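Journal club prep — side note

Before the paper discussion, L.F. wants everyone to see what a predicted structure for a comparable chain looks like in token form. Sequence:
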Amino acid sequence: MVVAVVACFASAVVPTLPASAGTRDLVERSASEPTTLMLGGRSNWLTLIELADDGLTTRSVQGIRDPEARSYRFTVDGEDLLVTDAMVQASTAWTTRHSVLSRLVVRKGDAYWDGRKLDLGRVTVERVFEAIPWKGGVMATARTYRRKSFFERWPFKGAFMETEDIEPFCLVYFDSTTLRGEAQYLFGKHTEPFFVLFSPVGTTR
């Protein structure tokens, strides 16, 4: 199942809500979820984000620009996908309307949901760009860094300057009930917005 959700961690103070306030309204707000969420839609690349029991996976699909139709054509899992300006506008409207960015805050490298600290493992969160509810949880695009011990750094391990340390663009997904989640490095100096589809791939040919 292809899934993508965006979460943005703001630097403003968010009021603390009761622990039971998070899950029910996420389910209600995501009742009209799109069938598919990706990154991109405004260029000739799409990044499909999949959520499975073993965590997040991503894969990129290259498309072709059609100047006459003012659109991009992709092939996803053997099916044609034509991304038009109208679809991009509908995607932006949905993600803006369902944004939960205001409920996320970053303090001293940690992220908080409704005032409660998230468990993302050994990760420092610097900034979050976008956030929407998905399947009872929250998926986010963010800038995060893996926390390393002294002996996990150069010259003991790795390069002097690693790609993931140069302003990384990452995905963050967490369960809004348990507050546990993960962060996954994506590109580098790149910030793609989420792109949502309201019909299954193959129905827009």
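L.F.'s comment for the group: Residues 1-22 have pLDDT under 50 and may be disordered. Keep this in mind when we get to the figures.
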